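Case 370 in the screening queue. Each case pairs one protein sequence with one candidate compound; here the compound is flavin-adenine dinucleotide. For every case the pipeline is the same: read the inputs, emit a complex structure as tokens, and attach any notable structural observations.

Predict complex for case 370.
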Amino acid sequence: MPDSIPFGIVGAGLSGLVAAAHLRETGHAVMVWEARDRVGGRTWSPPLGPDSLHLDLGAAWHWREHTRVQALAEQLGIARVPQHEPGIALYEPRAEQPVQRFPWPETPPPSWRLEGGTQTLAQHVAATLPGDAVRLNHRVTDVRRTDASVQVRVAGPDGPSSTTVAHLIVAVPPRLVAHTIDFDPPLPDSLASAQRKTPTWMAASGKAVATFADAFWRQQGIDGRVVSHAGPVAHWHDAVAPNGRAALAGFLHPTGVQTLATNGREALHAAIRTQLAHCFGDDAPAPTAIATSNWRTDDATTPPGVAPMQVEHPPTPPPVLTQPQWNGRLLWASAETATEHPGYLDGAIEAGERAAEQVFEASPESASTR
Ligand SMILES: Cc1cc2nc3c(=O)[nH]c(=O)nc-3n(C[C@H](O)[C@H](O)[C@H](O)COP(=O)(O)OP(=O)(O)OC[C@H]3O[C@@H](n4cnc5c(N)ncnc54)[C@H](O)[C@@H]3O)c2cc1C
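Case 370 output:
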């Protein structure tokens, strides 16, 4: 691998990979450093259960207005799966009280999942890059400006290493950047402060997914939705695959997060089995497998020791978060920097495309080879 390459990218989430794919159109080499042992970041859809269903432990849905997700899924040949929303839900007020049935009061805006889970977007985009372009288990620690380039220091399985790039796109949530990557010279105060104040969308949440032999809730006339004030899952919903393989997915209640933190994953999964039996009846089939995620303790999403910010909606980013630094050699992607749908998958794509365009503006000679 050469010591100097034209384009470097920090983070193989959807945003970084979209940027990498655009930069690759120039024919020049691109290197993507990824801290985790997988691509996809906050999209994570590992196989679960006897049928190896790919269920979403991170992002799951896109909506009608998320046209970039739709276009990318179509381009990559990934089928969109309408969310099943017929309308009779369950309400669990407390663990020791009976569960109630109620008609879901509103028709939610239509949403879609992706066949194989949302992580397939990142996996498919990564597959368009040369085999050695994405370096898993490589965490960028320091970024240094030199005369006409950027030096990137990386902690990898073989120890620290250093690579020089002409342009570097940092496709990591801004708050994580501010707390975990050192810049020399330091970033302007206005930028560093905006990065620290930008919540990472859904970083405070955790999810649960469970597979079943069949979608018995549909036969009971229930849509799979459970709203619970008891936990450990606050909100279950139907996640049946297009081939009919049965699953539920949900967001952890604070009691679920607490069980995980205090008693560990097995205790959480046991509590989830108890909750499902309470909601659907002791005779209902037990789950064949359960998996859970906790993004607030995931150090490639939430900086260690820094509590995630809880927000209702992702904020529109201040312009400083998207402005190139160091004469166009240092640029920013990640969903949180998008102007449309920040925080969402659609925003991740927008931000990756924008950052690549900014590289072409700063480096017209590379753009001309497209
Ligand atoms: C539980 C949950 C549910 C969600 N639900 C939805 C939804 O339904 N619909 C929707 O549109 N969006 C949803 N989102 C948000 C969606 O997941 C994000 O918008 C999108 O995945 C962000 O992509 P990204 O590439 O910008 O960031 P990330 O996916 O966070 O990618 C950043 C990458 O950088 C890597 N990284 C971090 N630090 C370093 C470093 N120092 N060196 C190298 N690599 C590093 C990380 O490992 C990661 O792979 C959800 C998120 C979560 C967590």
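Case 370 observations:
- The chain has two domains: 1-43+118-200+304-370, 81-113+204-300.
- The longest helix spans residues 345-362.
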